[in-house]
Design a protein that fits this description.
Aspartate Aminotransferase, domain 1, Aspartate Aminotransferase, domain 2, 2 domains, 4-stranded antiparallel sheet, 13 strands, 15% strand, binds pyridoxal-5'-phosphate
Length: 372
């Protein structure tokens, strides 16, 4: 049914009418039926192939079922204490959300009003743009330069209605990042006229040592907000938990737009346990680094153009449509991310998985390339 045919059409704001809803992929079982495969390697969402850390698994196993009837801590009390200890900040400098996805909405709701805009890149994590647009705010998209966020280009787009600039560091999907000098130059240029969000969803995967830790810059820049998540390195994507950090006075403002009880109790406890497991981080980094090197050799052998940097994913350009490649790979039990939605037609993004998964991916890729 089209939106024109419903009787309360007048109730719907134009910016909601214009917005195309995101269609999530079907459950694995349905996909396997649809594509006729009996196994599925999930390489589309940058999930941790090693799963959650052992301590978090133990916490999940021990969760006492009757506690499901009781509301969780409304502000993730103990988790914020632990995060504060870790980063040398105060608990009130953190806001925990139902995934980092939710904290994006907290920040936009806190600072934007009618007529305002946000600035980000054209080829990055799309949720900043989406939340802005379906909330009625303009998202100004600055093209990447050499696969990297264009700092000068973003500064040039600022006008008196710009409230927030979103930088994904390192960038999903290109793996590029701003070094500390670049980020500082950007923050200095902005002074405190706008909010700068640095999304560090993949910071725990970074191997280069000139990539800044946004947490360390919070003291100097009261308009800086840093995002982190438990979905990627910490292997808790299914529990939905992520957070933001900022200066006390900035977080005090954002707290007003943050929905209480959106973070469930079991996620809070698992996250708390996951934070202690440095060994799990080490093992995951080792796996990602080893398998990235394996893929690089295979892509070179196949003569493919790729874009890889930091993070647990790489992009590959194909001599065919990415949506067609997606379907052909699915038929062989390999799920990747087709990149048309990221404005990279003919590219796919593959998440780094176990060696078995990487071999299955290369084998499937070789098959579809031979036939195309
Ligand atoms: C995955 C991801 C997030 C959000 O993750 P949540 O699961 O909502 O915590 C945020 N930013 C980027 C760049 C991501 O890739």
């Amino acid at each position: 049914m089209g939106i024109e045919s419903i009787s309360f059409e007048k109730l719907v704001p134009d910016y909601v009418k214009r917005f195309e809803p995101y269609i999530p992929s079907k459950p694995d079982r349905e996909l396997m039926k649809l594509y006729g495969c009996d196994h599925l390697y999930r390489l589309n969402n940058n999930e941790n192939p090693l799963g959650p850390p052992p301590a978090a698994r133990e916490t999940l196993r021990r969760f006492n079922p009757p506690r499901a009837a009781v509301y969780p801590s409304g502000d993730s009390y103990y988790l914020r204490q632990k995060l504060a200890e870790r980063h040398g900040l105060k608990p009130d400098q953190f806001l925990v959300g139902n995934g980092a996805n939710e904290v994006i909405a907290f920040v936009i709701k806190a600072f934007c009003q009618e007529g305002d805009n946000i600035i980000t890149a054209d080829k990055t994590f799309a949720v900043y743009e989406w939340v802005a647009e379906f909330s009625g705010f303009k998202a100004r998209l600055v093209p990447l330069k050499n696969f990297r966020f264009d700092d000068q280009g973003m500064l040039e787009q600022i006008d008196e209605r710009t409230k927030i600039l979103f930088v994904c560091n390192p960038n999903n999907p290109t793996g590029t990042y701003w070094d500390e000098a670049t980020l500082r130059r950007f923050l200095d240029a902005i002074a405190v006229h706008q909010i700068v969000v640095v999304d560090e969803a993949y910071i725990e995967f970074v191997e280069k040592n000139d990539c800044p830790d946004g947490m360390k810059l919070l003291r100097e820049y009261p308009n800086l907000i840093v995002f982190r998540t438990f979905s990627k390195m910490y292997g808790l994507a299914g529990l939905r938990i992520g957070y933001l950090a900022g200066a006390l006075e900035t977080v005090d403002i954002i707290r007003r737009t943050c929905v209480v009880y959106s973070v469930n109790g079991i996620a809070q406890e698992a996250a708390l346990a996951a934070l202690d497991d440095d060994e799990h981080i080490r093992r995951t980094r080792e796996l990602v680094s080893r398998e990235k090197a394996f893929l690089a050799r295979e892509f070179a052998r196949l003569g493919l153009t790729t874009q890889a940097g930091e993070g647990c994913y790489v992009m590959i350009r194909l001599p065919m449509s990415d949506t067609l490649a997606y379907r052909k790979l699915m038929a062989q039990g390999v799920m990747v991310r087709s990149m048309t939605g990221f404005r990279y037609p003919n590219w796919i993004r593959v998440s780094i998985g176990t060696h078995e998964a990487m071999e299955a991916f290369i084998k499937a890729l070789q098959t579809i390339l031979a036939k195309s």
